[in-house]
Amino acid sequence: MNEKLNVCLLNDSFPPQIDGVATAVLNYANIIQHELGNATVVTPAYPGAEDDYDFPVVRYSSLATEKQIGYRAGYPFSASKLEAMKNSMFDIIHSHCPFASTVFARNLKEKSGAPLIMTYHTKFNEDIKRVIDNPLLEKQITKFVVQNISVCDEVWTVSRGAGENLRSIGYEGNYIIMPNGVDFPRGRASQEDADALRAEYGIPLDMPLFLFVGRLFWYKGFRVILDALKYITESGADYRMLIVGDGEDAPDIKAEAERLGIIDKIIFAGAINDRNELRVYYTSANLFVFPSVYDTNGIVVREAAACGLPSLLVKGSCAAEDFTNYQNAILTENDAFAVSKELLHAVKHLDFLKDMGEHAMNDVYLSWEDAVKNAFNRYNVVLQNYKQGITQSRETKTQEILYSSVSGITDSIQKVRSITASAKRLTIKTSKTITHALSSNITKKDKDK
Predict the structure, then answer these.
(1) CATH number of 191-365: 3.90.870.10, 2.60.120.260, 3.40.50.2000, 1.10.10.10?
(2) pLDDT at residue 294, as a whole number
(3) pLDDT tens, 149-163?
(4) Please, are residues 380 and 416 in contact by the beta-carbon 8 Å criterion?
């Protein structure tokens, strides 16, 4: 039996800021703290956060960059926080984001001597491309992210597709696949509650109901969803589409639905943070519609499966891994017309959808408890390997110089934060400064050879 370990978990987002990775870290922390050892979460400060958990949460300074990048950017060089944590006797440091969290984790590793694991959850190159409208700058930041990942002692990905994406952006080290779980029990919520939810929204019990759960960003496949719904509306099919979540693109998505003439078919429910209530939403629907090629694991797809709800997914996407077409999911091309054909077939075959949902529930379910226990078993392997000098870390002298440069730049940013009028201008200016520093140090290193 594995001995109890003291684990430090880091991520750039954490409740009250909710996304898939924040949910993963919350589950890791709860299960480790209650069953396996001790957990500490380290994350950027968030206004109004109330950290009433059974484990400690350490928050360091952050920048108000929600409008630019969707969440607060952490300032990972807090000397006071690092000094306070250096004697915490961590056995494992586990970062879940390659940006500020891994920078903080590297500093913490240097002070504590514990091995560092990095889990690659998301296609971060897509996030960078979305925020940075400058190919050269995008390339330099992506390079720094890869270098940040490469210095970790072991790298995990949440799916095969996530590993392929990591390779595509230049990572050359080894990695292992460590899937995420779901915190729903296997099984549907109360049918009485599901019927009551439909009644609340004025949806007849026999009306085909499609569901989306997640952050409202165009890259989640909303263009395909809306155009497909337009096609089936024009065909005369009656249905309702229930969209649960919120996000930066929500106003534009609603406006586009209105422009397409389908707004009366769509219900925007907003974000639902109560997990038991969310199970009712899954149980009330007939088909989960998730044509995203961005997500690397699709936790919401597995949540749907846990509730016996089948999903419509894009063939070859990470979310579609482990699913079989017409057995436990509908797999289609990433095309609005192709999706509309499947939706039209679905509204006429609701019993077929229910059968697929039963298969999904039985075929792909993985609880968070089992997922975290699998990870915890691997922690012990990483710890033993680290003690024997076996590590994936590929830190070079050049990377050390780059790392020091960014550290110095970030210290400078902290000094001017109070007099900077625009967080957006600060973000752009900082990014350009980082690019210049990275380029200068690479050139300097080359000259020193």
Answers:
(1) 3.40.50.2000
(2) 86
(3) 999 999 999 999 999
(4) no
- Average of pLDDT values for 338-344? 98
The total of other beta-carbon atoms located within 10 Å of residue 207's CB is 14
- The CATH homologous superfamily for domain 5-181+370-448 is Glycogen Phosphorylase B; (3.40.50.2000)
Model pLDDT for residues 128-177, shown as the tens digit of each residue? 777 677 888 888 888 989 999 999 999 999 999 999 999 999 999 999 99
Question: In this structure, is the dihedral angle defined by the CA atoms of residues 241, 245, 247 and 250, taken in order, positive or negative?
Answer: positive
CATH topology identical between 5-181+370-448 and 191-365: yes
* pLDDT, tens digit (0-9, with 9 covering 90-100), for 382-411: 999 999 999 887 654 444 444 444 444 444
> Do the beta carbons of residue 219 and residue 128 sit within 8 Å?
no
Instruction: Output the six-digit token pair for 55.
Output: 């484990």
Distance CA 162, CA 169 (A): 11
Q: Is the peptide bond before 16 cis (omega within 30 degrees of 0)?
A: yes
Domain ranges of the chain: 5-181+370-448, 191-365
Q: Residue 70: what pLDDT?
A: 67
Among 132, 334, 118, 310, which residue's Cα sits nearest to residue 223? Answer: 334
Decide: residue 423, CB within 10 A, 0-12 exposed, 13-18 middle, 19+ buried: middle
| Contact between residue 223 and residue 336 where contact means Cβ atoms under 8 Å apart | yes
